[in-house]
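Quiz preparation item.
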C-alpha cells in the first residue's frame, strides 16, 4: 500500500522551522525542525514513518536549495 504525506510550512518560532503535515491534505500533525542541527521531532511525540519520510524530504530540499520549502509532498 502506498503513502502520500503532505506538509506546509507555518510561521516559525525562535530557533525552529515548523510544518503542519498529514496524509493527503489532512494537516493534523506538527513537525518541528531545528535549523541549526536539522534535528526533527513531532509535536505529538510519535515519530512514525510518515514523519520520518516528510522530514527527510524537507531536509534534502534544504540541502539542495539552502532554504526550507513552503510545501513538500512525499509519495510512495
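Solution:
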Amino acid at each position: 500500500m502506498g503513502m502520500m504525506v503532505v506538509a506546509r510550512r507555518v510561521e516559525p518560532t525562535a530557533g525552529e522551522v515548523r510544518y503542519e503535515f498529514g496524509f493527503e491534505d489532512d494537516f493534523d500533525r506538527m513537525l518541528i525542525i531545528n535549523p541549526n542541527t536539522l534535528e526533527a521531532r513531532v509535536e505529538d511525540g510519535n515519530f512514525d514513518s510518515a514523519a520520518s519520510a516528510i522530514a527527510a524530504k524537507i531536509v534534502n530540499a534544504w540541502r539542495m536549495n539552502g532554504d526550507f520549502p513552503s510545501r513538500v509532498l512525499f509519495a510512495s
